[in-house]
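Hey team,

Filing this mostly as a record. A colleague (T.K.) asked me to run one chain through the structure pipeline before their review meeting, and I want the input and output archived in the tracker in case anyone asks later how it was produced. No errors, nothing strange. Just documentation.

Input sequence:
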Amino acid sequence: MKEIIESDPLWNKRFWNIQVTDASEHTMQIGVLAPSADSSKSWNLRCNIREKLIAYLKQEHPQCLPKLRAELGSPPASKEGNCAQLAPTSPPRDAGPTGAVG
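Output structure:
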């Protein structure tokens, strides 16, 4: 973090600080305070720090970045093009053993 902040020309060179602001069994959130000359430069400095930190983690510690696992596929086709066709096809709750509502 020191190299990232101190090499950025937008940092005003007064001070910087890093803190763990939240932690759980799976994640850790950190906050970085690094002032700049004005709010516009502060926004750009914040973006620079974030991008460089992510690039560092991606290169040096890729196992520490979150991984999203999802199953990709097409939803079932429906004649009307709405979700009504996706409703369960089991008998109504008050149906008897044959599925007939009594």
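Quick notes for T.K.: The helical segments are 2-6, 39-60. The beta strands are 17-23, 28-33.
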